[in-house]
Sequence to fold (101 residues):
Amino acid sequence: MRLDVATRLLSQLWRKIFGHRSHLLIKDVEELPDRMKSGTVYLVGEGEYLWYAAMLCPCGCGEALHMNLMSHSRPQWNVTKHPDGTVSLHPSVWRLTGCRS
Fold:
């Protein structure tokens, strides 16, 4: 429980210092476009069956990030679509190479 409180406090502090997260456009597609647009998260799949999420790195370096959404493969992310049109990916996306965003 203490970890939850600490996480919430750090999140509030982060928002005070750096502002709120920017909103990204969500696009459901069956195939990833040849050129992805900055500020867009692509959910690739057919209907309710999603294969992966993809986006350009938010730092602006231009690298494409792909997050597997299929439960039988690892590593695997979960996506939650919210009523306000936003999505959450869990676990968080953190690049271990390149820009390390």
Notes: Strands lie at 25-29, 40-46, 49-56, 64-68, 78-81, 87-90. The chain has a mean pLDDT of 82. The longest strand covers residues 49-56. The radius of gyration is 15 Å.
